Each structure stands twice: as C-alpha cells, then as structure tokens.
Amino acid sequence: MSLAALVRVTILLSMALLLVSLGLRSNAGDAGYLLRKPGLLVRSVLAMNLVMPALVTLFVLILNLRPPVEVALVALSVSPVPPFLPDKMLRLTRHHGYVYGLLIVSTVLALVLVPLATTILQYFAVRKEHFATIESVNVMVVAKIVGSTILLPLVGGVALRARWPELVPRAAPLMSKAGGVLLIVALIPMLASQGMAMISLLGDGTLVAIIAFTAMGLLIGHTLGGPDPRDRTVLALGTASRHPAVALAVTSAVFPDQTLAPAAILLALLVGIFAAAPYSSRQAKLLDPTITLRSH
User: Fold this and answer.
1) What is the rounded average pLDDT of the residues 121-140?
2) Which are the contacts of 75, defined by CB distance < 8 A and separation ≥ 6?
3) CA-CA distance, 62 to 59, in Å (whole number)?
4) How many helices, marked H, and strands, marked E, lie in the chain?
5) Which of the chain's termini has less CB crowding within 10 Å, N or C?
6) Domains in the chain, start-ordered, CATH in brackets?
7) In whole angstroms, what is the distance from residue 162 CA to residue 198 CA?
8) What pLDDT is stored for residue 137 in this prediction?
9) How far apart are CA 122 and CA 128, in angstroms?
10) Is the dihedral of CA 59, 266, 23, 227 positive or negative?
11) Does 155 score more than 70 pLDDT?
C-alpha cells in the first residue's frame, strides 16, 4: 500500500471513529431536532448554504487572490459540516440536539445543494479565466463522501448504542480520542507532501483572506443563530468550518486545472482552526465557565 493510500485509509478510519463515538452519545430525537424548530432550521440553511457562499463568492471576485486560494474558499463555502467538528461543538456547548441536527441536515442537504451551488456559481463569476468551465458536481460523488465519512458511521454508532448501551461510558471516549490521534497522525504526511505547495501560496493576502473567511463564517452563524447563545455558537462554528473532502471533490470536478487547490484547502483548514480559536474560547467560558482550554 502506498503512503497516499495509507493516509486516506487513516483519515477514513479517524472520521469513522469520531462519528461512531458521536452516535454512541446521541439521544433519541437528536436527529429530528431541527425539524421541530423550523425557524432555526431555515436560519441554519440560510447561513451555511446561501449567505456564506454568496458573500465568499463576492469576496473572491473583489479581491485579487491567487486562483487556487479563490477556488479553495469557494469550494469550502458550499461544503457541509466536517466530521471532526461536532465533537468539538459538544465539548463547547453541551447542546447535543442542535449539534447532531446541524450535522445531519447539512449532510443530507449537501447531496442537492453542493451540485446546485457549483452550477449557480458561474452566474456570479466575472473572472472567466478562473471560473468559465464550472459544471455541476456529480451527486453520487458527494453522496459517497458524506455517506462514508458521516452518515454510515453515525448510524453505526446509534445502532451500537441501541444494541449495547453499556458500551457508551467506556467506548465513546476511547473512540473519540483514538479518532483524534489518528487524524493528527494522518495530517503529518499530508503536511510533509503539501508543505512546499502551501508555503508557495503564502503572500498576496492569502492568510488575511483565510482569516477573513473564518471570521465571516463566525459572524454569519453567530448573527443568524438566534437569541440562544448555544445555538449561535454551534451555527457560527458550523458556518466557518467545512468538510475538506467535499471541497476537494468540488475542486477536482469543477477546477481540474488548479493543481494547487488541495494545498490551499489544507492551508485554509489549518489557518481556520487557529483563527476560530479565540471565538471558541470566549464562547466556552461564556456558556460553561468550568470548560477550560484543555477540554478543547
């Protein structure tokens, strides 16, 4: 097995462990939480799937960024919640229903909205040399990614909880920690292989643009999250952080000539984590003063 294949397997395994752990800790009714709150559901979809993509597209059209960075930010803006984010959300807010609900809704909607969004983007594009060849991303491509990295392991965790509830106290924390460790391990060779490409993208406002992207997502989600600070925190983090594998699928299908786009997505993911840290720390202290930075 090649190193690249081993990294992919490790990432898939880490995502599976994280999502099975989430499924083990879920409660009855979590999956349908947002369906019982139509106002919050509408605001969540608006924040993640309309306002954020529209503003990011306008953002990259106004600024003179490098094409791979533009492509990465646009692709991320139309992607769903990443598998590794809900675990962090649960530690920050303890608001389980909305965390699970947003993960499931954004994943299911991605099957329709990601292909649709990539098609609609061409009507906003004025830099023809960057966006003239936009085509819709195949629904089955998105379904394969979100199904294997989110839906199947999450459902598996729920099924395990129903069959062996005694597993939850011991297995869920172990799976969560193992998934996090494997994800870090998988990132090391990725950083090694993409490191020079990421460095080549620095300058010309790239870091500022990525930080602005993250801040934009946090602001949009926090504003549209409603009066409950827990909902605001969940939606802010969900709007600012997106599924990198879906973004990679978008870039490979829509922008095949942008070979540096994967490095730009990885750079945006890493910088975004640090850029969102002050907001996460502030909300953690606001919502639960007993939560410390160590719990992140």
Assistant:
1) 52
2) 246, 247, 248, 250, 251, 254, 255, 261, 265
3) 5
4) 14, 0
5) N
6) 3-295 (1.20.1530.20)
7) 44
8) 59
9) 9
10) negative
11) yes
